[in-house]
Amino acid sequence: MKKNIIIIASIVILLILMGVMLVSSIVKIKKVTGIKRLYFTYTNGYSAYSYTRYEIEKREDGYYVKIKPDGMPEEEMQEAKMSNDDIEKIIQVLNENKAIKWDGFHDSDKYVLDGDSFSFSLTANDDIDISASGYMRWPKNYGIVESTLVEILDAYYKYDSRVYE
């Protein structure tokens, strides 16, 4: 009798594992294939203008980015047309780091009074909307995505060399 229960339990466990493997092979994780709008801002202090903001928007003639660098007032925000290569790099880093899983991440460390924060939203494809934010808390792989976005998008901002020499 005990031997039969062990055999039945083993068969049930095996069937459950096979079912999980089958479902996971059928269910495909959605991927970002295009960007309609991306909004990303982060702070790293509380002095005047101590936040950075990027907004990417797809228009009929291509992609455009608006940039407000850290330490600059809103009036210094600039807009530039982006290359398709840079959009593809952004899509790649979003997919490689599973940013789609960030949707619904809204977390904060209430014990930190003077920390960093971020806000991220993405409208992509026809069926992907991602919204995430945090204060001293970040979703998985946030740092990789942030550094890539900053590296790509900051190149579009043209600083006045007379002011920043």
Could you outline the blueprint of secondary structure elements for this entry?
Layout: H1 2-26, E1 35-43, E2 51-59, E3 62-68, E4 78-81, H2 84-96, E5 106-108, E6 117-124, E7 128-135, H3 142-154
Parallel strand pairs: 5-7
Antiparallel strand pairs: 1-2, 1-6, 2-3, 3-4, 6-7
Q: H/E series, N to C?
A: HEEEEHEEEH
CATH architecture: 2-Layer Sandwich
Beta-strand portion reads 25-35%
> How do the strands line up in the largest sheet?
4-3-2-1-6-7-5
Unreliable spans are none
DSSP, total strands: 7
**Helical content (DSSP H or I, runs of 4+):** 25-40%
Gyration radius (Cα, Å) is 22 Å
CATH topology annotation: Mago nashi protein
Distance between the termini: 85 Å
What is the multimeric organization of the chains shown?
Answer: single chain
Largest sheet: 7 strands, mixed
Q: Any idea how many domains?
A: 1
Which shape, going by the Cα principal axes? Answer: elongated
How does the helix and strand content classify structurally? alpha+beta
